[in-house]
Amino acid sequence: MANRNDRRRSSPQSARAASRLPALAVAAALAIAAGGGPALAADPAAPPPAGDEAAPPASDWRFQATLYGWATAVNGDLGIRNLPTVPVDASLSDVLQNLDGAVMGSFAASNGNWLFLADLVLARLSHKETVGRFGRSRLSAELTEVVASGAVGYVLPLHVPNLEVAVTGGVRYVNLSVDARLRPTILPSRKASGTQSWVDPTIGFAAHWAIDEKWFVNAIADIGGFGVGSELSSSGYLGVGYMWTPSISSAIGYRYLYEDYQNRSNGNNFRYNTTMHGPTVSLAFHF
Questions:
Q1: Among residues 42, 104, 131, 259, which one has the fewest Cβ atoms lying within 10 Å of its Cβ?
Q2: φ/ψ of residue 47, rounded to 5
Q3: Is 11 helix (H, G, I), strand (E, B) or coil?
Q4: Percent of residues in the chain assigned helix, strand, coil, to nearest 5
Q5: What would the pLDDT profile of 1-41 be if each residue is shown by its tens digit?
Q6: How would you class 58 by CB atoms within 10 Å of its CB: exposed for 0-12, middle for 13-18, buried for 19 or more?
Q7: What is the rounded average pLDDT of the residues 126-136?
Q8: How far is CA 28 from CA 79, 93, 123, in A?
Q9: Quick one: 283 exposed, middle or buried, by C-beta within 10 A (0-12, 13-18, 19+)?
């Protein structure tokens, strides 16, 4: 969640290479994405101007748009169809080599004790390699990923100075779409494609601690899935930020996202169990 402060049959070679790509793609898709938990502190209302006439009441709504980056690696296992489960261990440099482009952003709104949070990640990756003995076949693959999340939170009445903690509930949507083509030197080309998507309900918390007028700490965590979408889903973030002006802030931190998803219906047999993790940086605009 965004920081408010700041089919057709394929050959075994093509199917195996396609099975490696989604995990790398998810990591790369999020490699430029995402940055920390929502900041719960609302901007203070300006004092009314001096004079006999009363000033109109100020709006309680506060908004924030955030741009962010997530330098992520990925670890876990991936399986497609009847192929064996493939272990995935991709570093940041590995996933960035496959990234064609990505668009990520988030938006947040608050009114009193209520928080409304939304985040969207769009990414496209491509991968080419020579496979088979003596390098006789050329494999190319493209993957498009969408990760969208939203949540509603309520600030708890803790009455602790400079500390706000909210309970949150929401959903996280994941869509992976891959197209692969194997071009042998002599035989006709072969294609493989597939799409997987799921929605995870989530529950969690978000916390904001204002160290002083400039510095702050944000933390967020959730858990979800519960067999509704994935078997289990979880994310967490911890970051430190700085208010440069009343309208601009930035933050650095560390985030992870875990997904354990399986689909064995209709012979699909898709298994995806990975953890993405790495440092984050964000730039937020408040209004």
A1: 131
A2: -70, 150
A3: coil
A4: 10, 60, 30
A5: 445 455 333 343 333 443 344 333 333 333 333 333 443 43
A6: exposed
A7: 62
A8: 19, 9, 8
A9: middle
